[in-house]
């Protein structure tokens, strides 16, 4: 097969097999999702002791629960006896203990083994040593982030710094007070595409004029193909006639209390690698959490967060939800259209990035350095 050389103003994407190969995905599970901080659950979803949620982090099922002291705890969702999955439901609530459905070993909400049938005959079983395996957990922006690494990387450097990098001011994201906001709507999307297609799509706006008619109406500069992410600290300004970040540009809700004048009437988009997107607008925050389940499947949970009084009043949030829901549906349809072609011979060497997408090359370099180029390198598809 012969291919045309890429012109100097264009650079290559990753080869197609990076989006389809189960071995590349396995490496990503190990080197990214199981090694970095992973945004797992919204803290307020676990609103009382015993409430739990299980999430897939790389190859592990992680159980997150609220202890009696009120703190969140994370454990591997594996019984220490013979390895049965402790909680099989995605979410739920237990009274005081977590009991394995196989032989009834029972753990308290701090993960200590507190009871097991016939254990009285086995005095040498150390109840602490056979407790659930703890997973590191940090809370930020109102979410619980977990890390499976034995020695987690600095949360400040690897997670919080991403926001600083984008907004140019460490305090800028704090102005939105995400941890104090209330959930107005959550929509879960089961996307038949590799997680990197979703990241790349989020990071560029070359597609905005083609597939996002409602968004470009609200943010006219997006029609030019430059994402807000392209400029450090630059939010995309609302159009002159636009009153709020809603599907028809109509009035939204009151500006969040600490949002500054220069942040008002602007939209900011932040990618926190590997799996989180934060969208900031004056009256709400939209946060995407991705759960990559296979090379060609990613579940995305998207939360729309508003001031608590807006949600408590029962106000109709559908106009602002509808705007980004349409954006999500349009984006994920584009990713699903791209996924099958990743295994085409036409994409064996990858595609190209136009100048307004060159920052995606930085994402690719980051990925390759994390994987230690073990995915086969850019040239692996060249035969
Ligand atoms: Fe859990 Fe036996 S595997 S009690
Ligand atoms: Fe988009």
TrEMBL record:
Keywords carried by this UniProt record: 2Fe-2S, Dioxygenase, Iron, Iron-sulfur, Metal-binding, Oxidoreductase
TM annotation in the entry: none
Record keyword Iron-sulfur present: yes
Molecular function terms from GO: 2 iron, 2 sulfur cluster binding; dioxygenase activity; iron ion binding; monooxygenase activity; oxidoreductase activity, acting on paired donors, with incorporation or reduction of molecular oxygen
Matching PROSITE patterns: RIESKE
Rieske domain ranges (all copies): 37-146
The UniProt record lists the keyword Iron: yes
Cofactor(s) listed in the protein's UniProt record: Fe cation
InterPro entries cross-referenced by the UniProt entry: Rieske_2Fe-2S, Rieske_2Fe-2S_sf, Ring_hydroxy_dOase_asu_C_dom, Rng_hydr_dOase-A
Pfam families in the record: Rieske, Ring_hydroxyl_A
Protein name: Aromatic ring-hydroxylating dioxygenase subunit alpha
């Amino acid at each position: 097969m012969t291919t045309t050389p890429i012109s100097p103003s264009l650079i290559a994407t990753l080869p197609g097999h990076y989006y389809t190969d189960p071995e590349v995905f396995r490496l990503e599970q190990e080197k990214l999702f199981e090694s970095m901080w992973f945004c797992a659950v919204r803290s307020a979803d676990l609103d009382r002791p015993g409430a739990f949620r299980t999430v897939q982090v790389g190859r592990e099922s992680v159980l997150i629960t609220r202890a009696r002291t009120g703190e969140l705890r994370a454990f591997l969702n594996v019984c220490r006896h013979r390895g049965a999955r402790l909680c099989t439901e995605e979410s739920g609530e237990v009274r005081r203990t977590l009991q394995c459905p196989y032989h009834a070993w029972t753990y308290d909400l701090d993960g200590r083994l507190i009871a097991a049938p016939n254990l009285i005959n086995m005095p040498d079983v150390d109840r602490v040593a056979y407790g659930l395996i703890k997973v590191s957990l940090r809370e930020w922006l109102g979410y619980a982030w977990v890390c499976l690494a034995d020695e987690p990387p600095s949360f400040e450097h690897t997670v919080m710094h991403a926001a600083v990098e984008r907004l140019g001011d460490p305090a800028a994201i704090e102005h939105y007070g995400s941890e104090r906001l209330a959930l107005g709507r959550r929509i879960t999307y089961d996307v038949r595409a590799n997680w990197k297609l979703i990241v790349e799509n989020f990071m560029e706006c070359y597609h905005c004029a083609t597939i996002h008619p409602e968004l470009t109406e609200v943010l006219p500069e997006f029609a030019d193909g430059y994402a807000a992410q392209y400029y450090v600290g630059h939010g995309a300004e609302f159009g002159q006639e636009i009153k709020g970040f809603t599907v028809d540009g109509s009035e939204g809700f009151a500006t969040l209390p600490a949002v500054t004048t220069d942040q008002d009437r602007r939209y900011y988009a932040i990618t926190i690698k590997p799996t989180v997107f934060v969208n900031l607008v004056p009256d709400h925050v939209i946060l995407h959490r991705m759960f990559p389940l296979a090379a060609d499947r990613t579940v995305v949970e998207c939360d729309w967060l508003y001031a608590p009084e807006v949600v408590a009043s029962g106000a109709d949030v559908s106009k602002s939800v509808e705007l980004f829901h349409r954006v999500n549906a349009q984006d994920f349809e584009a990713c699903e259209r791209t996924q099958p072609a990743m295994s085409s011979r036409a994409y064996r060497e990858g595609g190209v990035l136009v100048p307004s997408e060159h920052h995606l090359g930085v994402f690719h370099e980051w990925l390759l350095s994390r994987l230690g180029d073990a995915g086969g390198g850019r040239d692996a598809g060249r035969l």
